[in-house]
Here is the input.
Amino acid sequence: MGEAAVRGLLGAAVAAHHRFAVKLFRHGRSTAEEPGTSVPLPVRWYNEAHGHRHAFPVFRPPENRMEGDDIARIFRLFLEQVQDRGHLARMLDAPLISYNADKLHAAWWIKFTTDITWGTMTMTAKRTHVRDWLFKKFTTDPKRKCMSPLLPAKRIKSEMKWKGFDINDTELDDIVDSIFDQYAAPP
Here is the structure.
């Protein structure tokens, strides 16, 4: 076969794959070519939850967008509380993520939701999870028994590594309470 024939065959294969992929993509976006064959995402989630094996025939989306938006709101409220209370102003070199809720959400929300189903949790369970997660990420106590030990020499770097960010257990509880007072109110 000549070089032109091989190039033509590869071009035809790529074009056919592209048409197939676009059709699948459009089907997932409720613009299927055959009317009535597209299934909205909430219906797919419902079908999957009730044992329908083929709710997602091609791939399963990695997360629920509404759940991600809800968690983004928690992160936004956290940063607002920390900023309003002056904790960020005390930091010498505050990282960009400490002022940008979208960056914080993008960097941490998957780790935040590991081993939980946020959408089905009660408000008390959500509050407990947020408090425990913030404690785990920001504690500077090597034994992980309090937010920050009394002696500065015994402190370690927190998982977040925000140098100069230091809150105690009472402040953490106040921040979490304020977050959930605003979170429980309609947006």
Confidence is low (pLDDT under 50) at residues 24-32. The radius of gyration is 24 Å. The chain has two domains: 3-49, 65-184.
